[in-house]
Specification:
Oligomer: single chain
Helix content: 10-25%
Distance between the termini: 13 Å
Shape: elongated
Number of helices: 7
Strand content: 25-35%
Length: 310
């Protein structure tokens, strides 16, 4: 093997990517992990993870992912943070990954680049992002001590982040597009009886209002078409995610939403490229699922490299 070529390059250091790194490094494969920001992915922005096995009392998302990283590094994985992959190309059996800090080569690639929060795409959202509009409760919740806020979206993410925000805020108005609360029942039970919480179901946000900071949101009842303005100091948005696959368009097969299509062995449409975690086309996106996929991909890579090197 050439000294400057890795056995496997893993794009993304969330649960799926780091699990893959643990397994490939333990196989004594020369493993490189490229992460565009800091290790941890979305779980690192979650205050508490309660449904990951082995932690009966729950564990902080950042702490859990710190342990993942340390375990991968213990077995020899090389992790480079703040190294976003901007492009990928193939030359024979070698893949070349381009970043702002240079080009890295490997015989196989595991894509674990995850996803980013969807925007509402309404007037005022971009203008007021960072000035009252947020997508991360653990990051920005403390700034809203004693204030009135809105949480957009009542799925699991919205309810979990809302529970975190209740530690700080005076009140939360939840706005949900559907006529019911889609989040898990156990999450609903923790907040629906709190007197500081109000739900606007079957409503849509039409604008986020304010000059220097958020002052209110405009909402519309989807059934009656009645519109009204709600005064809030902050807006936390949880309406789904978009996959980080821009650098892969035309390189591997994606579904209509941009997620990577794989088989059960995590193989993509291009030999030598695998995909795991939230970036993969599937129904369920959970940490435990991501870890399982990371394991499968690592084993698939091990077997693939045996064939490539014959």
């Amino acid at each position: 093997m050439e000294e400057n070529i890795y056995d496997v390059a893993i794009i993304g250091a969330g649960p799926a990517g780091l699990t893959s790194a643990i397994y490939t490094a333990r196989e004594r494969l020369r493993t490189l992990v490229l992460e565009k920001v800091m290790c941890g992915g979305l779980p690192a922005t979650t205050e508490r993870v309660e449904n990951y096995p082995g932690f009966p009392e729950g564990i902080g998302g950042m702490e859990l992912m710190r342990r993942f990283k340390e375990q991968a590094e213990r077995f020899g994985a090389e992790i480079k943070e703040f190294s976003e992959v901007k492009g990928i190309e193939q030359e024979g059996k070698i893949f070349k990954l381009t970043t702002d800090f240079g080009t890295f080569k490997s015989y196989a690639v595991i894509v674990a680049s995850g996803s980013v929060p969807k925007k509402l795409n309404v007037p005022g959202e971009d203008k007021l992002t960072g000035r009252g509009v947020s997508y991360c409760a653990i990051c920005d919740g403390p700034f809203y001590q004693g204030k009135d806020i809105a949480v957009i979206g009542c799925g699991n993410s919205g309810l979990q982040e809302g529970e975190t925000l209740l530690k700080y805020v005076k009140s939360i108005t939840f706005v949900e597009f559907l006529p019911y609360i889609p989040g898990e029942k156990i999450l609903q039970e923790r907040i629906i009886y709190d007197k500081r919480v109000k739900f606007l179901l079957n409503h849509i946000v039409t604008a986020i209002n304010g000059e220097e900071t958020v002052q209110s949101i405009s909402v519309r009842d989807r059934e009656s078409q009645e519109e009204k303005e709600i005064k809030v100091d902050g807006v936390f948005i949880y309406v789904g995610f978009l996959p980080n696959t821009q650098f892969l368009k035309g390189f591997v097969e994606l579904d209509k939403e941009g997620y990577i299509i794989t088989d059960e062995e995590m193989r993509t449409s291009r030999a030598g490229i695998y995909a795991v975690g939230d970036v993969r086309s599937k129904k369920v996106r959970q940490i435990s699922v991501a870890c399982g996929e990371g394991t499968v991909a690592a084993i698939s890579v091990r077997d693939y490299l045996k064939e490539v090197r014959r």
